[in-house]
């Protein structure tokens, strides 16, 4: 494996040049770790590579089959994206942007309800965030834990994800923290 502080590629390069280097880790990965730990704390451990054991986690697999209900809007600080920037995003990333805007506005268009939040997997935290938001808009009386997870995604995870995605150059790295 080419990772780690002993035998990772960056460490080997440091040994080769004879001095320490600035490590530019993936800030998108750094953004997903708190979400992952919050989900595990609020909803229990995972149950295989594609499912969870907690109440909300078990519902994530079926969330896109539930009809949209009236839901409370949650404000968020998503940066506005131009259409050209939105088109550069992958389908799951566009879904996150659209569903965040829908929850922010308090109404959901068919472009969100007719789209898939993506395949649920513990390796793809963006799609897990998509499923949490989709679960929220399809749940008549969301639990307190679901609301906490939703607010974290809306107020921290998604705004930071798009900030990092749109300003991915290492020059912006320190600004993201």
How would you describe this structure to a colleague?
The structure is a single chain. With 177 residues, the chain is an all-alpha fold. The chain has one domain. The protein is 53% helix and 0% strand. It contains 8 helices and no strands. α2 (27-43) runs antiparallel to α8 and α5 packs parallel to α7 (125-137). It is globular, with a radius of gyration of 18 Å.
Percent range for β-strand residues: under 5%
**Helix/strand class:** mainly alpha
| Major sheet size, sense and barrel closure | none
- The helix count comes to 8
Number of strands: 0
- The residue-averaged pLDDT reads 88
Uncertain ranges: none
Instruction: List SSEs in N-to-C order.
Output: HHHHHHHH
Shape: globular
Q: Report, as a whole number of angstroms, the end-to-end distance.
A: 28 Å
What is the domain tally? Answer: 1
Radius of gyration: 18 Å
Range of helix content: 40-55%
Outline the fold blueprint:
Layout: H1 9-17, H2 27-43, H3 55-60, H4 83-88, H5 91-105, H6 110-113, H7 125-137, H8 144-166
Helix pairs in contact: 2-8, 5-7, 7-8
Compact summary:
The protein is an all-alpha fold and 177 residues long.
Structural features:
single chain; 177 residues; mainly alpha; 8 helices; 53% helix; globular
């Amino acid at each position: 494996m080419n990772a780690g502080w002993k035998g990772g590629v960056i460490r080997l390069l440091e040994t080769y040049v004879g001095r320490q280097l600035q490590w530019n880790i993936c800030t998108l990965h750094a953004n997903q770790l708190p979400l992952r730990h919050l989900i595990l704390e609020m909803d229990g451990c995972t149950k295989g590579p594609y499912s969870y054991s907690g109440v909300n986690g078990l519902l994530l697999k079926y969330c896109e089959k539930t009809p949209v209900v009236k839901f409370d809007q949650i404000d968020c600080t998503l940066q506005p994206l131009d259409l050209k920037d939105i088109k550069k995003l992958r389908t799951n990333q566009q879904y996150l942007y659209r569903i965040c805007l829908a929850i922010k506005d308090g109404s959901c268009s068919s472009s969100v309800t007719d789209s898939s939040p993506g395949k649920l997997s513990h390796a793809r935290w963006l799609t897990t965030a998509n499923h949490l938001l989709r679960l929220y808009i399809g749940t008549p009386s969301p639990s307190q834990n679901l609301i906490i997870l939703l607010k974290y995604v809306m107020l921290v995870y998604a705004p930071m994800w798009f900030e990092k995605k749109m300003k991915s150059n290492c020059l912006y790295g320190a600004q993201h923290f």
